[in-house]
Design brief:
Number of strands: 0
Shape: globular
Order of helices and strands: HHHHHHHHHHHHHHH
Number of helices: 15
Oligomer: single chain
Largest sheet: none
Strand content: under 5%
Helix content: 55-70%
Distance between the termini: 67 Å
Length: 333
Amino acid sequence: EEVAYLLLFGHLPNQKELTEFSADLMENAVLPPLLEVFLGAVPSSSHPMDIVRTGVSLLGMVDADAADHSHDANVQKAVRLLAQIPLIVVTSYRLAKGNPHVRPRRDLSFSENLLYLLTDRKGDDQARVMARVLDVSLTLYAEHEFNASTFAARVTASTMTDLYSAITSAIGALKGPLHGGANEAVADMFLEIGSRERAETWVREALVKKHRIMGFGHRVLKKGDARSEIIQRHAESLSRICGDQRWYEIATTVDHVMEQEKGLHPNLDFYTAVAYLLMAIPRALYTPLFVCSRITGWCAHVIEQQDHNRLMRPRALYMGPPRREYVPLNRRT
């Protein structure tokens, strides 16, 4: 909550501001009736990111302030999205699985509520540690400058359309497997490997076959991702507390081989997958969970763009076929 506040309001909150912000999130943690109808009608086979994308678009249709591009209005819309997107993610998943609907609890923090809504876990010591690690992952995911989805949001926002349209653009960009879904793919890899004893052989065989090993390298952070070191520490601690070292041992083995063979370092998604597996978060929701956090960074960029707007209109250097003369239709062979 503190980092979300920082991104949206420009400074870390004092205790009074944080208490009011948390209360504001709880007050807005309710979905309009149209969204409830939509979530009850979507096919169970629908992609979770399609549901989030369309859900945000529907929120824009029922928000009376959607067309207000003022700074204060955009901030309030951002707060509402931060409160409502987790409900879209969780409600659609629980309905698809036939699980009973649950509401956020006022006595839980944002991350504690998210863990509770996703897994029904709350209250016990292990759940509190899991919520703390989940909070760390959300903090690390909250903002990361001009990645593809953020750039998509800013380009859209620069036309002075509404904030919901810009966020819908961002979600559409994140759905693409070259941007989102990496932590889900890492978890799938760990599950396929299965045990520490198989890990080294598995990754070396994959490298021989020139298969891509997910969770390594970064288009910008060429010398390693400092965020990865943070989540790794928490994943290790959570593994010990849960009494389940399997995923962490697989991860460290793969990490060692990749550094040895390719000189590549893990990115944030790699050890995040260890933590999410331990929490028993459904793998199909890893990328929507990313949205629950990155919505703050996206909205901060949209707000900044529209506060000091200039239309983004890139130019392109044409490299196609040379100029051709027009031939009337009756003379074309």
